[in-house]
Task: inverse folding
């Protein structure tokens, strides 16, 4: 797959998106590294769709909690994994999540879901079911930035552009603390627990480009991902100073 820059007949400008290219950009890394904002920003700039795979694990977790299922019971969780119909919207400007037709975009971010989701995500039948669905979404997207923990290693190992986004533990916790209005210390304890529980499902692909976002602005991270995608696609890259 290769994309050349198109000349817009109305404006005479060179188009710098890689939309409709079928390009898959995999963005993996731990929570708090800035994956979502960076992936959405890069997808918007590149004219690609966007998939937040974590939101699908969160959606299933919300549905299980709503039914009073004990999420530490892996057998029951696995047996129920395919029950709810989970749908996601892939517009990077306005992603949404629905379960059985109900919009749960906001409620999947609550502390209750965040505390329970790692136990659900570790269950093999859950992963097999959601990974199959994620592969379908990616295959049908016509070009997508997909973020998660195992995109470059398991979900889309053939993705030609792979990024592993990290940040120092303290920096990740302080970013999350701002979002959740809890103290950085309390957030750090939760973060370390989640990192431990998620570690078996998380990995950096050998061919991923590692970006340490500790002292980078969001724009700088987006710009790096966009540059990698354009380099791969053969589209000229213009540096964006602000968004
Ligand atoms: O990125 P997040 O916090 O929304 O992810 C929610 C949970 O899902 C977290 O426990 C990690 C897990 N996850 C996963 O196991 N594999 C993915 N591809 C994405 C998320």
Result:
């Amino acid at each position: 797959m290769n994309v050349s820059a198109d000349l817009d007949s109305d404006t005479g400008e060179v188009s710098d998106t890689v939309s409709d290219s079928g390009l898959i950009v995999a963005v993996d890394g731990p929570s708090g590294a800035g994956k979502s904002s960076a992936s959405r920003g890069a997808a918007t700039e590149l004219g690609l769709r966007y998939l937040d795979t974590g939101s699908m694990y969160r959606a299933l977790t919300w549905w299980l909690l709503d039914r009073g299922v004990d999420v530490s019971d892996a057998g029951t969780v696995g047996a129920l994994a395919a029950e709810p119909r989970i749908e996601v919207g892939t517009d990077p400007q306005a992603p949404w999540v629905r379960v059985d037709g109900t919009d749960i975009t906001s409620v999947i971010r609550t502390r209750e879901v965040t505390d329970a989701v790692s136990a659900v995500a570790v269950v093999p039948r859950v992963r097999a079911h959601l990974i199959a669905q994620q592969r379908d979404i990616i295959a049908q997207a016509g070009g997508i930035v997909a973020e998660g923990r195992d995109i470059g290693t398991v979900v889309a190992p053939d993705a030609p552009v792979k990024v592993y986004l990290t940040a120092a533990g303290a920096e990740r916790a302080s970013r999350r603390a701002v979002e959740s209005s809890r103290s950085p210390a309390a957030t750090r304890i939760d973060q370390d627990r989640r990192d431990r529980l998620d570690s078996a499902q998380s990995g950096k692909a050998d061919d991923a480009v590692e970006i340490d976002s500790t002292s980078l602005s969001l724009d700088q991270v987006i710009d790096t991902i966009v540059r990698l995608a354009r380099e791969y696609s053969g589209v000229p890259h213009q540096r964006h100073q602000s968004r």
Observations:
- Residues 31, 53-54, 57-58, 117-118, 121, 148-150, 194, 198, 201 surround 2'-deoxycytidine-5'-monophosphate (CB under 6 Å).
